[in-house]
Records
---
Amino acid sequence: MTDQSHGRVIAAHGRHYSVELPDGKLIKCYPRGKRNEAAVGDYVNLTMQGADEAALESIQERKNLLYRSDESRSKQFAANVDQLLIVVAVRPTFSDDLLGRALAGAWSAGITPIILLNKVDLLDGMPLALEKLQPFTQLGVQIVEVCAHQAASVDEKILPLLKGKTSILIGQSAMGKSTLLNSLVPDALAATQAHSVALDAGKHTTTSTRLYHLPAAGGDLIDSPGFQAFGLLHLDREDIERGFPEFATHRQTCRFYNCTHQHEPGCGVLTALAKGEIHATRHALYVRLLDAKSASDHRY
Ligand SMILES: Nc1nc2c(ncn2[C@@H]2O[C@H](COP(=O)(O)OP(=O)(O)O)[C@@H](O)[C@H]2O)c(=O)[nH]1
Ligand SMILES: [Mg+2]
Ligand SMILES: [Zn+2]
C-alpha cells in the first residue's frame, strides 16, 4: 500500500485545505513549507498521514489562476476555472467599475466571463440595468437574465451553461449570489456543515471560497465571498490590454509599437474612442488600471 495520493482542493482555510480524493472522500491537508499556496480548484499531490489527513506535496500544473490584488493584500480566487459568472442585479445598482475589472481579470487570465443579470422581476429597473450593460453587450459578452427566486428559471437558464465545466460565481453583496447558489446547489449549506465537521474547522467557517459539485449538470461551481474591491495590480500593461479585447483591432493601426493608447499621436485606439467605436467608460477604466499600476510600481 502506498501513501501517495492526489486530489482536488475544495476549500482553503488559512493554514489548511479541504481536499477531495478520487473516491470522493474529504480529507484535511497541510502544506509542506510556505511555497505550496494552493487555491480552490487546484489538483494536488499528497502524502497520506493516516486515513483523514495528508501533507500537500505539490500543486499540479494549472490551466489558469484567477487572481486579484490590492495594496494591502493579494488573493488567489481559484485555479483551473473555465468560466467566471459575475452576478449583477437590477437593484441595488451595481458598480460598473467592479464589473469592468472582473471582466478584465477574467480575459487576462484566459477565462470566459458571463454576466448573470439577476432580479429581472423588478421590471421598472430593467431599462436602466440594460443600458448600463450596453457596452458589454456590444463586446459580445453573454448576458443571462434570471430571477433567482424562480428555481425553474434558474435551472433552465443557468444549469446548461455549467455542464461539464468549472465555473466560479462572484458578485457584490445584495446582488442575489447566495439565492442563486442555494438554487443551483440545494444542499450547499449541508455540504458546508459536513465539511466543517469532517475537518473539525468549527461551524462558522462560512466565508471561505468553496467548490461544489453539480450532480444535475455534471460540472463544478465555486462560490467566492462577495467582493467590494477587485484590484488588478498584479497585471502588467500587456495583461491589462488583454482585458480590453475591443482594443485589439484598433491597436494594429497605432503609429508606435509600444503605444499606451493614452496620449500618443496616431493612436488607433484613441481614434476609435473619438469615433465612439470604443466606449468612453471602458477606455476610462483602462486608464484607471494603468494609473493604479504605475502608482503602485513607484511605491515599491
Ligand atoms: N426581487 C428579487 N429579489 C431577489 C432575487 N434574488 C435575490 N433577491 C433578494 O435580494 C436580497 C439579497 O440576496 P442575497 O442572495 O442574500 O444576495 P448576496 O448578498 O449577493 O448573496 C435578498 O433579499 C433576496 O431575497 C430576485 O431574483 N428577485
Ligand atoms: Mg450572500
Ligand atoms: Zn495606441
Note: The CA atoms of residues 68 and 75 lie 6 Å apart.
---
Amino acid sequence: MASPSLIDAWLDTFAPRPSTAAIGGALAGGAFVQHERGIFELRPTVVDQRAVALVISVGVHGDETAPIELLGETLSRLEAGLVRLGAPTLLLLGSPEAVVRATRYIDTNLNRLFERGREGMRPEQLRARELMTAVDRFFSAHQGRARLHLDLHTAIRESLHPRFAIEPFAATSTPAALWNALHGAGLQAGLRQHAHSWTFSHYSRHYHEAQGFTLELGRVAPFGANDLAPLRPLGAAIEAWIEGAPLGLDARDGEVAMPLYRVAREITREAEDFRFAFADDLANFSEFPPGALVGADAVQGEVRVGDRPQRVVFPNPRVELGARAGLLVERLD
Ligand SMILES: [Zn+2]
C-alpha cells in the first residue's frame, strides 16, 4: 500500500487522472484509508464509548466549494496533529468529477438519487451507489454508536438565514440539544421537511437512524472566493466530533435557541406559463402576509399564502411540469 499523507491523498481526488491505487497512512490517533476516489475512512486507535460514528460529505454538488475548503482546513490540522482522531469518521467528496469540472453535476442532480433499489449507469447513478455502499459499510461496522451525518452545501440564492440546517423527513427526530449544538456551530435556522426526499442526508436518517442534516452554508462561489470565517464555528464543531466529543443528546432538552420552520405546502409547476409573483432573486425565507399572491399558472390558477404568514424557500419556476417549484414554510412556535 502506498503511504502518502492524508492531504496529498485528498488533493489527488481533484486531479483529472487520480491515482487508483489503494491509499492509506497514519494520523495522530489512528490511520486513514481511501476506499474509492474521494471516500476516506478515518480509523482511531482508541475510541471513546460516547464518540459518534461521524459522516461528513462535501461536494455532492460540484460547484459548492466553501465546504470543500472548510474540510481541507480540518484535514490539514489532522495531518499536523492539531486535531487528534478519536471517532470513527467517514469523509466523502460527493462528486469528484463534478468538482474537477467546476459544475453542479455531470448529468443529473446527484442529491435526489439516494434511494435503495435504483438502477441506471449514468455517472451520478453510479456515484450514488458507491456513496450509499460506503455509508452502509461504515454504519454497520459501528453498531450501537450514536450516528451523525452532515452533508455540507452552499445555496444558489441569498437567504435571510444564510446558514440553515434541513432536517430530512424520517422517523428519527432531532432532539433540542442537537438543534442547539448546530446553532452553536453557526447555523441560524432549521427547516423540517414534510415528506421523503431522496437526498444524501435523508439516506442516513431513513435507512440508518442517523441524525442526518443537509447544511446550507451561504452562497455558491468558486475556489478561493469563499469567506470561510462564518463557517469556522462549524469547522470547530466537526473537529470536536472527530476528536471524540459525544453528540450531547443526554443534555436536558429545553428550548431550541434558533427559529425552526416546517413545510406548510409545496408549490408545483402545473403548466408551461407558471410564474412567481416576485423577483427572480428573492432571498430564501422571504416572508409574505396571509393571503398574498406568490405564483400562478393556467392549470392551478393562483397560489396564495394561507391564514398565517409564510416564507418562500428554494423557488425555481423553471422546473419540469409537475415538479416542485418551491416551498412555503411556517415558523414553528
Ligand atoms: Zn448543493
Note: The chain has a mean pLDDT of 94.
---
Amino acid sequence: AEVTAIDRRAWGVAVRTADGLVVRARTLVNCAGLHCDRVARLAGDDPGVRIVPFRGEYYELARPELVRGLVYPVPDPAFPFLGVHLTRGFDGSVHLGPNAVPALAREGYGWPVVRPAELLSTLSWPGTWQIARKHWRYGAGEVHRSLSKSAFTQAVRRLLPAVREEDLRPSPAGVRAQAVLKDGTLLDDFLIREAPHTVHVLNAPSPAATACLPIGREVARRALRRAQETGWRPPAVESGHCV
Ligand SMILES: Cc1cc2nc3c(=O)[nH]c(=O)nc-3n(C[C@H](O)[C@H](O)[C@H](O)COP(=O)(O)OP(=O)(O)OC[C@H]3O[C@@H](n4cnc5c(N)ncnc54)[C@H](O)[C@@H]3O)c2cc1C
C-alpha cells in the first residue's frame, strides 16, 4: 500500500499507508523508486536531489532472426543513458530501445499521461532547466525519434542496417527514476543517504536490477547499523537457528 505519512519519534518511525495501516519500526528503508525523494521528504529528510522521470520506449523486432546477441552502441559519457540498443531475450524476442524522453508524470508511461502537480514539481527544480539548457539538442532528437517511427528506425539502422520500419512493433515502456542535483548533474551512480532511523535509496539506475543482491546487502547493513544505534541488538544465531 502507498506510504502517505511518516512520523519520526525518538524510538524510530511510524508509517501510515493509504489503507489506514500504521507500521512502526526502528528503521525505515525508503526504496520507493520514482517517489523516493517524496518519501524522504515525508520522513522530514532533505533528499538533496529531485527525481526527474525519463521514459524509455521500446519496439519489438518482428524479424528477431536478424539479431543473434546483444548489440550496444559506444556509450556517450556525457549522458547516464546508454542509448538505443538491441536486446535478445531468453525467449528469442528482440527489443529495440530504450530511448530517453521526459515523462510528464512520474508514472508517465506514454505521452498522454500528464499529472500537472508532478510536472510542476519537475519544472520547479533548477536542475531540470540546467539539463534542458545543456542537452536540448540531444533531447529534441530523442523526442523526434519518440514521435516518429521512421526517425527511430533510422537510429536503429546504425546498429542493424537491414531493419525496416514495418519490422518495429510498439512494446511497453519503462520510466527511469533519475536523480538530478540542483546544478543539473544527472547522477549515474547509486546514491544511498542516511539520517537517524532512515536509509533512503535515492538513485538506483541501471544496472541496479542486475546488481540488486549486493545493493540489498549494503542497504541491510546500513539499516542494521541504524537500528543498533537505537539500542537494538540482532538475535544471537547458533548453527543457523536464532536462540
Ligand atoms: C527503460 C528501463 C530500462 C532498464 N534497463 C535495465 C537493465 O537493463 N538492467 C538493470 O539492471 N536495470 C535496468 N533498469 C533499471 C531498473 O529498473 C532499476 O534500477 C530498478 O528497478 C530499481 O529498483 P528499485 O527497487 O530501487 O525501484 P523500483 O523497481 O522502481 O521499485 C520502487 C517500488 O516502490 C514503490 N513505491 C513508490 N512510491 C511508494 C509509496 N509512496 N509507498 C509505497 N510504495 C511506493 C513502487 O510501487 C515500486 O514497487 C532499467 C530501467 C528502465 C526504466
Note: The domain at 51-180 is CATH 3.30.9 (D-Amino Acid Oxidase; Chain A, domain 2).
